[in-house]
Amino acid sequence: MSLAEFITQYGALAVFVGAGAEGETAAFLGGIFAHRHLMPYWQAAVAASLGSFVADQFFFLAGRYASRLRFVQTFTASDMMRRVTRLLETYPTGFILSFRFIYGIRIISPVAIGLSSVSALRFLALNLVAASIWGTVITAIGFLLGNVVEAVFGRLHLHIHLLIALAAVAVLIAATAILTKKYLTRPSRRT
């Protein structure tokens, strides 16, 4: 089975699992797969959105109902959890709609929301909206980058195209991580 056949057969499942486990890279690659006509764009976007939605619901429920688990307690003891909680308390709706776009706080955020007073129904609704937007946007970026790569380099072999896409993702993740670290790890100012 060739790589293209494998992606055609299992691409949506891979994007779903990858978007839930890792996030941006899987959704972005889903866009590349759609650009290469290995799967329909809508399928890649839906798989990315659902993967993100399901994973965030899981971590929310872990925070809400399994706060005694070791991995939840590890999160709650971290300095990052205090910063995430402070953002959540200050901007609850905005934070829930945007946390998945902020590198480095994607898993800890739904745990923090689960530990907060945000209702499960409110999180469910906002998570559905945010995951839909996130999956559509990140997959679209991958699709558009596929167009750019093809316009610049011509039609490449699939593995070369994917390597260029992964390099672009690595650069974007590194830049986002630097910005996130700069703005989220600043010492809090006490008045």
TrEMBL record:
Database matches in InterPro entries: DedA_domain, VTT_dom
Domain VTT: 25-142
UniProt xrefs under Pfam families: VTT_dom
Keywords, ordered alphabetically: Membrane, Transmembrane, Transmembrane helix
Membrane spanning stretches: 12-35, 41-61, 123-146, 158-180
Protein name: DedA family protein
Organism (species): Neorhizobium petrolearium
